[in-house]
User: What shape does this take?
Amino acid sequence: MEDFVRKTLLISLVLVFSTLWLQAQAMGQGDQSSPTTIQGCLKYRNGHFWLTDSSGKVYQLQSEYNQLQKHNGHEVELTGMESVRTVGTTQQGNASTSREQHVFKVKTVKHVADSCTTGGSMSH
Assistant: This one.
């Protein structure tokens, strides 16, 4: 009887871990979805490039510096992959605070205008 319980427990654990592994794989594949296009005002600030779209949504951009530098202060259209990461986690007593930062990995840049017509201000 004890042998049966051990085998049942072992099989159950294998199934649970297999399910978790498959879910993790599926989530990882979600990051490789089709590219997205966003448009907005490109600004260089605090050592990073940022894009603010017409709704006020701010993205931290990941790209080669040379790809973006000539478009600083311009309206651009970017194609790439969007993701969200948690930043600013700090301990305050027993609670921690954090916020979500939209990140955009830039593949291509298209110049739209020499000045920004959308999302000119950045607050983050």
User: Anything to note?
Assistant: The domain at 36-113 is CATH 2.40.50 (OB fold (Dihydrolipoamide Acetyltransferase, E2P)). The chain has two helices and five strands.
